[in-house]
Amino acid sequence: MWRRTVNAKNNNIQKIDKYLKGKLDNKAMHQIEREAQDDPFFTDALDGYEKEGSFSADNFSDLKSRLRKRVAEKQRNKLLLWRIMPVAACLLLMIGAGYWFFAHKQHRLQYANNIPPVTHKAQPEPVAPAATSKGANKITVEKPAYIVKNEPIKKAAPVVDILKKMQRVKVDSNGKIAAKGNENLIARLNAKEFTGGSVREAMKKLPRDIAEKTQVVDNYRDQVAKAAPGTITITGKILDAKTGEALSGTTIGTGGKGLIQADVNGSYKLTVSDTATLSFNEIGYSGQAVKLKPGQKNLDVNLITDGKALSETVIRGYVSRKKEPANGATYIITGKEVQDNPVGNVEQLLQGKVAGINIRNGSKSKNELMSVSGRVTDNYGKAIFGATVYSGSRGVAKTDTNGRYRAMVYKDSLILVSNLGYKTTSFKINPGKSLPDVKLEEQPNRLAEVSIRGYVKRNRDETTGSSYIITRKDKPCKENARFKRRFFKKIAIAEKYVTEHANKDTITISDSKFYRALKFITEHAPSTIKADKAGNVGYSDLKIFELNKSGWLNWYESNKCNNLK
Amino acid sequence: MNFLKSQATIIDLADERLLLAYKQSGDLKTLASFYEKYMHLVYGVCLKYLGNEELSKDAVMQIFEELIDKARRHEIKNFKSWLHVLSRNFCLMQLRSDKKMPTETLPDFMEFTDDTHLYDEQEGDMQLLERCKEKLPSAQKISIQLFYLAEKCYKEIVAETGYTLNEVKSYIQNGKRNLKICVEKNRER
Description:
Helix content of chain B: over 70%
Number of domains of chain A: 5
Radius of gyration of chain A: 33 Å
Number of strands of chain A: 21
CATH topology of the largest domain in chain B: Rna Polymerase Sigma Factor, Chain: A
Largest sheet of chain A: 4 strands, antiparallel
Distance between the termini of chain A: 62 Å
Oligomer: heterodimer
Strand content of chain A: 15-25%
CATH architecture of the largest domain in chain B: Orthogonal Bundle
Largest interface: A-B, 80 and 85 residues
């Protein structure tokens, strides 16, 4: 299966490459294009290759080998696990007994209280078939209470190395193991306990996989050895994605906090929690955030230039400079311009005065931050998963599988909820209402992902897909007051008729005034209620009207600045 | 009529079986075997959005990591289109995670073709299709005619009509959509 599909794909890939280089005949080209027309995935991919100009087989085989390597990693672990099962069985070990602990009971209890339970974080371990291995016990991996996690130990390191990493466990040069100063301990693996001395020799050869699952317990079956805290030292290099040049001075951090900066060679080294997400930020480049994988020790990052913020603007209170050495853009604000502004600091003073400088006023905004949460559903009340919630132009949250989201937003910002295939809905937060639930109206013809821009000026020609330009209230917007009056009046007329007829089972309204109102609305806004030529308007219930109405209102909100007539 | 059907919606039974096998065994090799089948597509999508070979390769591997987990947890009906959406979302998230939105991410043409069962071959449909075709704007009609019936490739169509390549592509795409809407609407009556 594996080989067959791969071979078939290889042919395909060569064909694609030829297509991109224009080496195919017309018939074959048509075939590829036809395939792309039928398959949006392929269309997308083809767009990608075309952007790059070619699709080299090298790239693909590189990918293939990376994938295989990734799979082999896991596979080998599994094989090892099975090969050493017999060894493991005899050696699930440790060293029993301990009168000793009676004497130290008090101490032990105290100790136990201090240990937070550490849960097993590893990838779900595949359960391999056990039938063929001779006489091996079928082992199901239970969750150990304490393990050694992500410690920098070589793959095939003997278990002593791991044990040494466990707190309060000592391994001497003879391989004697002692926990908390006492040699009499029990080892537990897969809920089985092992005591006695023979394990000691075997332990030296025990590979890491097994050792990680070994618990050291005392006579009360309490954990004695504590897992090393889940930190990891990670190293890596930061490069420019295009040129491959090292980027020195890139800020690396976690959780929004910068921790260190890369050195002149673009290298960095830092110790963080093993579940951390590292962020990489450099002026002139798009930032990147990468979540660490279990066991990851090296993380190289390629950053892309964003071409926008090429230099940081430094605001100086008062600096006298010679005219010549100033090589950045200098803007001089005279006292006259700012004297009437009762502001507290230089930044506020500059706000809105200098073109191209964005001033974010941290402290002030913080006060206006509020937490909102709610649920995003479609018109039928079904949760929408993965919808994006924006505050202004910034994505702040995604909905979970239940359609729920929680986000911190600025009190006065416009909140937008967007998902592919649905109409983007916007609203302002109502301070009295803490749970803004959002219903998104389906919009099947909204095929392309739309990026929402706060306020963007573009040439018309450049726009290749559909884009919504959402204008903020404070930007100039010419609303056509006459249209607005008319549009809302027509909605009111329609609503009046509908409510009057709402108590009947099937509603058919055949009234010219209602028909005219609906005709006007549907000529402009999208609607599922339509009037037929005879002037009959049929629809099934009030709910549908309500949905349509909110759709119309939304339509008006997003189009009101488009010079409606 | 055939061309109104979408390939993407034809469920590959082999995929379904492999996916089930993976769910049961958790064997990465199984997962990798059918991921590899689509890897060149995932890579292409990444190229499209991220626009950089190295980044795209990284993304392909990261998407596989996501898949390891997600393929187990989600009920997947149609693996191929699901993977398409997953890949695209991943790339878009990647782009969004840089606070600044890149300005070049608007996809030109993207169509999610839906249910195919509407398009069972029927005698009447061919006539219907002909009628609908006549109603298309002429540029779309010509492009559709040349692409689907004369089986010409884009290059030839460009040469014959003088439209640009992008125009041809969008005429075909839009024409196809219009045809579909037209056929659907008329069949209901």
